[in-house]
Amino acid sequence: MSTPKRPSTRDTASGKGQAGGFAIGLVVGLLVGLALALGVALYITKAPVPFVNKVPQRTAEQDSAEAERNKTWDPNAALAGKGPRPGLGASGAAGGLAGAAAPGAAASVAASTEPGAPPPGIATATPKAPGRDPAAILSGAPPTPPVAAAPAAPVADPFVYFVQAGAFTRPEDAEQQRARLGMIGQTAKVSEREQAGRTVYRVRLGPFPTREEADGLQLKLQEQTIDAQIVRVERQP
Description:
This protein has helices at residues 9-46, 60-71, 77-80, 90-100, 103-112, 134-139, 171-183, 211-223; strands at 159-168, 189-195, 198-208, 229-234. The chain has 237 residues and is an alpha+beta fold. It has a domain at 159-234: 2-Layer Sandwich (Alpha-Beta Plaits). A four-stranded antiparallel beta sheet has the order 2-3-1-4, with helices on one face. A hairpin with a 2-residue loop joins strand 2 and strand 3 (198-208). The protein is elongated. The N and C termini lie far apart (140 Å). Mean pLDDT is 73; it is low at 80-84 and 86-113.
């Protein structure tokens, strides 16, 4: 049986040297790659962006000239064919048209500026007097006076109005309020109504056919320190 051969010291040293050389080469390659990437990045940041410097820059004189043109720009110039000359506003354009017109036309334009005058170029119809029947003229009969239109009938108010001097939960309080109104010459009535599951006793005066009468009575009660409200009820047919 043969014994395995042990590696010599020289072989071990050469293997370690090769491993160390590979590691150093890897580190050097990484450093070189980083340096190249850094150089490319610096070149890109320092280089001018394409197409940016090729656009001409506007000067302050050009901006001011464009602002002056925008002041006299007329949006309706394209509709009329040619707009007003630069430097003329609406009054200048109107003056040019008036100067080019004939003297008679200028007088009619000036007259149309008065209050109530129709615009120039529009004929106004002259009201004609009511004519008579030719047969009546030949017969010598006097003219028939025009028939006046009958006044429109006033529209009836579809509501009647009450003045409510209070609503109470006890009938004794309602009767006391009614007696207080009677002492100042006002006749009131007490009516019952179910409200929120309870019986309410209302003290009312009226009815009144118009709101003006109800408002007048409300004002009188307020002068007597009696709170009152106007209640509107639909008129029964």
